[in-house]
Amino acid sequence: MAKGVDFIIKVGNKVLGGQRGATLNRSAEVIDTTTKNSAGWKENEASYKEWSIVSDGLLIENDEAFQALENAYMNGDKVVVELSTAAGNKYTGDAYITDFPIEAPYDDSATYSVTLQGTGALNKTVA
Fold first, then answer.
1. What is the pLDDT of residues 74-109, one digit of tens each?
2. Residue 101 φ/ψ, nearest 5 degrees
3. What residues pair up with 38 in beta bridges, in sequence order?
4. Does residue 9 contact residue 68 with C-beta atoms inside 8 Å?
5. Which of 18, 1, 24 minimizes the C-alpha distance to 95?
6. Which residues 6+ apart lie within 8 Å of 123 measured at CB?
7. Which CATH number is 96's domain given?
8. Which of 55, 92, 103, 114 is deepest in the core (most CB within 10 A)?
């Protein structure tokens, strides 16, 4: 059984320090191809796919991967991102940062969250 602690995010070739959670979102659209010959059943064809990664963690401002995210966000640049699973499978692709809040509560650890919206294909490499 896979444990979330074993899922690692890399930005470029740097492990994202302080990372806690990660969600790989994958979705696909369909095109309605229903006709009068569909016998009362709706029919669809596969269309565009998209992906994103949402992550959160402890804020470590001098972490190289965090700094790469910060720079990419500030400059509107793409980042190469990789999500490794517990089994060693890897999902990689280019992404833009669409959400990047920092939370600094008075009585707790400072944290960040980041949404990486994929642009182009998400590639899977099997371990």
1. 999 999 999 999 889 999 999 999 999 999 999 999
2. -75, 150
3. none
4. no
5. 24
6. 91, 92, 93
7. 2.30.110.20
8. 114
Is this model's pTM higher than 0.90 or not? no
Check: CB of residue 92 under 8 Å from CB of residue 8. no
How far CA 5 is from CA of 12, 14, 55, in Å, comes to 20, 17, 12
Percent of the chain at pLDDT exceeding 90? 87
d(CA 49, CA 2): 25
Total domain count for the chain?
Answer: 1
57 forms bridges with which residues in the sheet? 19, 112
Spatial separation of the C-alpha atoms in residues 101 and 60, rounded to whole Å = 14
- φ, ψ (nearest 5 deg) of residue 19: -60, 135
SS3 state at 42: coil
| pLDDT mean across residues, the chain | 93
Q: Does residue 38 lie in a domain region? A: no
Q: Helix or strand or coil: residue 118?
A: strand
Is 52:25 a contact under the CB 8 Å cutoff?
yes
Cα–Cα dist 125/112, whole Å: 28
